[in-house]
Amino acid sequence: MGSRYGALSVDTPTWTEVSRGAPCPLCEATTGCSILENREFVRCLNLVSQWPVLAGGWLHPLPAPAIDQSLLAGPELAVTA
């Protein structure tokens, strides 16, 4: 008998293994660590955090990339009274 609510769909995150061309942003290792596809998190095998990963290593949130504020600024509007 099927579920009353239909199949449950869960998106599995994609992790990319580090390499010589793209080393771990935390420990600079070229093997073993991995980075979440949206670059929000790193699973580092060498740097301990408060979030251990069952498969090995530790989870680390990455800081958001800096935003160039000049790209966000729109044209200035003249205020008239």
Explain this structure.
The protein is mainly beta and 81 residues long. Helices cover 5% and strands 17% of the residues. The protein contains 1 helix and 4 strands. Strand 2 and strand 3 form a beta hairpin. The longest helix is centred in the C-terminal third of the chain and has 4 residues.
Order of helices and strands: EEEEH
Class per helix and strand makeup: mainly beta
Residue stretches low in confidence (pLDDT < 50, at least 5 long) are none
Tell me roughly what share of residues is in helical segments: under 10%
Arithmetic mean of pLDDT: 84
Order of the strands making up the biggest sheet: 1-2-3-4
Determine the number of helices (DSSP H or I, runs of at least 4 residues).
Answer: 1
Tally of DSSP β-strands: 4
Q: What about the largest sheet? A: 4 strands, antiparallel
Keywords:
four-stranded antiparallel beta sheet, mainly beta, flat
State the gist of this model.
The protein is built from 1 helix and 4 strands; from the N terminus they run ββββα.
